[in-house]
């Protein structure tokens, strides 16, 4: 039995496809994205608009793909709003790294800490100590 796909699930998947293609092929125009993904130009334009509004991509200027007519506006990943946090808890140090969507490292921090006797769910920083760079 085939199960129907909910509209919001399909939209989220297509947003991921468009964002992934911008990452792989950027800078890329909306027309090129439509061709690469198989989605309509209208759908791609709406999704790119939503990604711009969310701060995940940005327009980067005109891009001519060798075709006639007006050049398209290229879009690229934006590192201004969305980031990922990576943490490493080792026996003798703690490390944190913040990376934006363009894979630029925004913050890297490491602190020597003896975690051998620390409980698995305890606070690794001594009482009254936090990250000296203001990250927590």
Describe what is shown at a glance.
This protein is of the alpha+beta class and 136 residues long.
Structure write-up:
The longest helix is centred in the first third of the chain and has 19 residues, at 7-25. The chain is 29% helix and 28% strand. The chain starts with 6 loop residues before the first helix and ends in a 24-residue tail after the last strand. It is α+β, with helices and mostly antiparallel strands and 136 residues long. The strands form two sheets. It has a three-stranded antiparallel sheet. α2 crosses α3 (41-53). The radius of gyration is 21 Å and the shape is elongated.
Portion of residues in beta strands equals 25-35%
User: What order do the SSEs take from the amino end to the carboxyl end, as H and E?
Assistant: HEHHEEEEE
Rounded mean pLDDT score? 84
Distance between the termini: 50 Å
Secondary-structure content class: alpha+beta
- Backbone shape: elongated
